Amino acid sequence: TYTLAPERTWPSGSEDVRLAVNWVRENIAAHGGDPDRVYVMGQSAGAVHVAGYVAREFGNVGGRAPAQGWKPAGALLISGMYDTDTMVRDERFRAYYGNDDAKLENASTVAALAGSNVPLLVVVAEFDPTDFLNQFIVLLETHMRRKVKLPRFVQLMGENHFTTVWRLGTEGASLAPHIHEFVAATTKR
């Protein structure tokens, strides 16, 4: 999990993800795991923080090349928000990003995600709220404008903002096959 707004504000969520991933990477071998097979997944606000982590650590934005060396095997962004320029600036937005729009210059992750060297699976639910659907489109449009490879993306029909992940681990979970396919396609052999 991660620290919460308004006590902790942007970019604390992505910093929490970075700390957790670094711990896993450094300790997974002692538990029989492989640091080259670490995937990062977040849903809703969690996707915001995973996107922030990937963008800040592995994105290509502002002339800065993506980090070399270790990186997650992939990132799964489920019903997230990526572009602070086009997000609805409601009370939840203000609680995390603050009231000073001048400080938002580097808050958007959409361009850095399009320049990231981390494989992405981007998921949206058919019945996600409109702002989440818009963010999904903005992320894909950014990839198209930058003429970079599109992330793997999926729209889960018949699902809403919560059921995409609530059903994981149950029979008929519509997200599970996409996760399995993504991991199989991105796992180093």
Q: Any idea what the shape is?
A: globular
Largest sheet properties: 4 strands, parallel
Compressed to H and E, one letter per element, the order equals: HEHEHHEHEHH
Briefly note the structural class of the backbone: alpha/beta
The proportion of residues forming helix, as a percent range, comes to: 25-40%
Distance between the termini: 30 Å
Count the strands? 4
Radius of gyration equals 16 Å
Overall pLDDT level:
92
Strand content: 5-15%
Strand order of the largest sheet: 1-2-3-4
Separate helix tally: 7
Low-confidence stretches: none
Word description of this protein:
By secondary structure, the protein is of the alpha/beta class. About 40% of the residues lie in helices and about 15% in strands. It contains seven helices and four strands. It has helices spanning about 10-25, 45-60, 90-95, 110-115, 130-145, 165, 175-185, and strands spanning about 40-45, 75-80, 120-125, 150-160. The protein has a four-stranded parallel β-sheet, with helices on both faces. Helix 2 (about 45-60) links the parallel strand 1 and strand 2 (about 75-80).
